[in-house]
Every structure is written in structure tokens, then in C-alpha cells.
Amino acid sequence: MSRLEAVIFDVDGTLVDSERDGHRVAFNAAFEEAGLSDRWDVATYGRLLKITGGAKRLASWFESTGRSPIESTELAERLHKRKTQIMRRLIEDGQVHARPGAHQLIHQIEASGVQVHVATTGTRAWVEPLLERAFGNRFHTVVTGTEVPDLKPSPAAYLEVLRRTGCPPEDAVAVEDSANGVRAAVAADLRCLAAHNPYTCDDDLSGAELVAKGLDDPALVAWFHRRLRSRCRPNE
């Protein structure tokens, strides 16, 4: 196995518990402020997560509820801007938290001299303050959907991280939570570890080298322990 030089994390549902009690809450607040009757319960939002990108998710929902394509797109763009503002407020209020095991895993990786990066389809307007509040300034490279509009399962975000860092894909591993994320990582020729959450536990994650229940899953922790230990002891 190639020497491990970089770990590239997804954000939503991977590093942070942001979907159910973060984004979903922000979307519903944006609906209410706009005087719309639309509301996304936990199950509905889980189904909508198959659509990557908040604005696309909104547009698809509006079309499915009878709006025209033009009206749906315009309404989605307007609501998504407001939703992002609300999401930032939730982050500032400490309502979005790191997943169990995230801090410990990142610390373990950093202590071995391996760089940690981010490749997400989320917009920088909320990703940056979330990472700063939840983890501090610990990521060497952060690529978001603001810079790379081709959303997962496109490999574009991962390819951009590799381009910026100069790291060969065989020397890196991606950590994801969803089918779209795993497909994106594999399309970028990356090994991928999947740490699913309640929303993605039924996703097809077969493209991942390892499927774990979370970042604190003993199998995932052991995977990193073996690779990082061998990195620190190259003569083994």
C-alpha cells in the first residue's frame, strides 16, 4: 500500500452532524419567513438528500409540488441565500456539532504528520465558519461548492484538492458518508472510507474500502492506526 500523505474529509454528515438539526432546520425557517407552507420533516429531508446541493434540492422540491421550472429555480435561488444566512446563525449559536470521534481522529492524523483537507459541495459562506468553530484552523486545503460548481458525485472537488496539494491520489484517502460522496472519491481514483450516519445507512457504499458506523467505529479507528503507525515506522 502507498504511503499515506493526506486525508480528505467531506463535511456534511461526515465531520459534523449538520443535516437533520442544521440544514433542515435552516430550510424550514427560510420557508416560514417567506410565508410558504412547505416544511421538511426528518424523513422527507432524508429522501431529498439524494439530490446534491441545497439550491438543486429546493428547485426539485418546488417542481414536485407544482411550481413551474422557472418559478422553482428563481424561488430556490432566493430561498437558498436566506437559508445560508440562517445556517450561519445556527453555527454561531453552537447548534451544529462535530460527529463523535471527529476530533480524536483528526488529532491522530495530525500527530503522524499527515495533512488533513476538505472537499465539500457546501458553500464557503457556511462551511468556513463551521470548520473554524467546530475544529479551529486545522485543515490545510478547503475546497467547497463555491469554487467548484460541479457537485458530487462529480469528482471535481476531490480533483481540485489533489491539484492544489500536488498529492498523488494513491497517497491519499477520502472519508465520506454517502453514496454520492463515495462515487465522487472513487472517480477521483482515491481510496475511500465511508462513515455512514442515520440518513445514509441504506446508501450503496460498496465502492468504499471500508464501511463504518461512524468516525469512532473501532474498524475505522484501527484502519487509521495501522496506516499511521507504519508511516511513522517506515522500516517495519
Automatic annotation (TrEMBL):
Give the UniProt keywords, A-Z: Hydrolase
Report which superkingdom the organism of origin falls in. Answer: Bacteria
Q: Please identify the protein, giving its name as recorded.
A: HAD-IA family hydrolase
Task: Name residues in a coiled coil.
Answer: none
Signal peptide start and end residues: none
Single Gene Ontology MF annotation: hydrolase activity
- Which PANTHER family does the protein's record reference? CBBY-LIKE PROTEIN, XYLULOSE-1,5-BISPHOSPHATE (XUBP) PHOSPHATASE
SUPFAM superfamilies assigned to the protein according to its UniProt record, in alphabetical order: HAD-like
The UniProt record lists the keyword Kinase: no
